[in-house]
Amino acid sequence: MIALAFTLILSACSQSSSSEPDNKKSSGKLEIFSWWTGAGEEDGLKALIKLFKEKNPDIPVENAAVAGGAGTNAKAVLASRMQGNDPPATFQVHGGAELNDGWVAADKMEPLDDLYDKEGWKDKFPKQLIDMVSKDGKIYSVPVDIHRGNVLWFNKKVFADNNLQAPKTFDEFFKVADKLKAKGITPLALGDKEPWTATMIFENILLGTLGNEDYQKLWTGDLKFDDPKVKKSAETFKKMLSYVNDDHSSRNWQDASQLVSKGDAAMNIMGDWAKGYFVNDLKLKVNEDFGWVATPGSEGQFMIITDTFGLPKGVKNVKDVKQFLSLLGSVEGQDAFNPLKGSIPARTDADESKYDEYGKQTIKEFKEAKLAPSLAHGSAAPEGFVTKANQAVNIFVTQKNVNQLIDSLNQASSELKK
Amino acid sequence: MEPKVLPSFQSGSSLAVSAKKRKKWNVDQWLSFAFILPSIIAVAVFVYGFIAWSGYVSLSNWNSLVPDLSFAGLKNYLFLFKDFRFQADLRNTLFFTLFFILAVLFMGLLLAVFLDQKIRGESLFRNIFFFPMALSFIVTGVIWQWLLNPATGVNLFLKKFGLDSLWYTSVTVIPGIQWSKIQFGIPVAVIAVVIAAAWQMTGFSVAMYLAGLRAIPEEIREAARMDGATEFQIYRKIIFPMVAPITVSVVIIMAHISLKIFDLIYAMTGPGANFVTDVPGVYMFETTFRGNYYANGAAISIIMLLSVAIFIVPYLISSRKGES
What we know:
- The complex is a heterodimer of chains A (418) and B (324).
- Chain A has 418 residues and is of the alpha/beta class.
- Chain A is 52% helix and 16% strand.
- Chain A has helices at residues 2-26, 39-55, 72-83, 97-104, 113-119, 127-132, 156-161, 170-182, 196-220, 228-241, 253-262, 273-281, 318-328, 331-341, 357-368, 383-399, 402-417, and strands at residues 30-34, 61-65, 90-94, 109-110, 134-135, 138-139, 141-148, 151-155, 186-189, 265-269, 290-294, 301-312, 344-345, 370-373.
- In chain A, the strands form three sheets. In chain A, strands 1, 2, 3, 4, 7, 12, 13 and 14 form an eight-stranded mixed β-sheet that branches.
- In chain A, helix 9 (196-220) crosses helix 16 (383-399).
- Chain A is globular and about 65 Å long.
- With 324 residues, chain B is mainly alpha-helical.
- Helix content of chain B is 70%, strand content 4%.
- Chain B is built from 14 helices and two strands.
- A two-stranded antiparallel sheet of chain B has the order 1-2.
- Classes of the chains: A alpha/beta (418), B mainly alpha (324).
- The interface between A and B is medium-sized, with 35 and 31 residues.
């Protein structure tokens, strides 16, 4: 026993003595917190960090990425660190409600207006985007990338073989779907093992049915969920669900994309990270093997998902963090990161030639389109509402009870305003 | 070291006596007390302290990122019992626990009796049966998801024979009696999770039963055979009653695993369509760490703790009685 105690004490001593120099360093370390551990996104992050190190060799950087799809695990780790007053130097957060109704409302973020002024960013990012990362007139984070959520992907070969055109309206969608169904091809691939994929379909139907203005009003409370147009959207959603694959609840979004790539299914509604999956993982060719259009009724609109980084309160190395943020917001930083991740830059003046055909078209459309915040990805409403909406959608996919869905959404939104 | 200390506490019938005795502690006893002190403090703070904290949070209004510890009474609990998802969770946990324990007991006893027949290559079979225990539930979940998925594995065979391969994702509840917000009955999709969980944990009950069977002296069987009992009768009248205490232990250990199950479900099926395979652990994780409903999440945790306590507390009481 005593011998054991001695070894414990000894090892404790040796640990503390060896960790001392580490401690000194870590107080000045720039800890970058994200959930970018997947194929392209990790490469993008590493390219950014490399670029930062070249420019600032004196600042030690730590990549504190936490693995886990859509940031589930990372967000849990972040929440406990923020509440324990141990924030990372800067962290990934979706622009919109996730930032504003979450961390800004909890008084955990520093405003970045001075940085925007210094770098002259206010006319480099679209105004609607800056609004998404602002609360009460102050800007709280720097957007790095843009993903589009309202994209309908389709297998070009299947469409060509059956003489079909990509649908632009709901009527066209159902006509196409009926023809495909008659041929024994699954019209729409869905993988809702994680229910947010079904929520994405629903939000895109809402955008396509309500139009941009009314869609935005849902999140400010100016339009109630029992509005007839929302009901109509739910009916459309119900009808669309009758065209999906039987085993949808055992698949995730990648599995659903595979159905489209193999030609077992013809279409798929997913954010444009699906393009990265098609190209990098499934080795498909852009605009040869697969094509894309905006989801029915949402042409000229841009369901936006944006990753941003901010400055938490209580961080010691504020200057270093701002140094990093100014690289994130620069053309150079955005063009180092986005081509690898498969997203498009948040700035409107980035170098288009670095992006593929899909990227070029999306960059162009991003400049012209009306932006709409995504519900499924936490930009439109606080996480609490998103969780409830996902639950309601999960029940709806099975029970297909329109009134029940509307009631649940209504109840969740009224709870929010309390 | 513990047994040495404890009798000196218990043997004193009055405070004065125990105080006297405490004075008589020798260096060895002090040292042993000093050694367990850190773990007593750690358990007090990190186990009981945090259970108490969770209990407190479950009675508060803390349902956003901003901590709000004002007293809410039983609001969070009332919400849960009216909630479709939580009602479904209770139903799923009930049937999952029931079938899982039955499967583990039945398969465990069967395989243990089989191993006890002095067969050739017994140690090989024993290792095969025990091996799944060495895996984590996450690994088990991923493997069985591939095996039972409608698009892969076992179901490709079933399809060849014209059998329905969609039971894995089925939303059917048998018999599906409407009860409050949910359909009450056995959710078909739970069967898949039961298979995976039973596959993993059967090794444990095999080990327990095998130890029990080996502890039964051969003389008893001999005597029974002399009295003209058939092999079947020997098992039914002698062996099974003698291993009954083991059944109690297995049930309690399996129940606390199944009531708290999270990783297997999370890796294998997720909450499932219409929440047919959702369990309180998964709901707790999602509502707390995705939705920031801290108070609701704490309430779910407390309910899980109480449901496990139903099994564990009587067991602890009876085993204490047995000791003294």
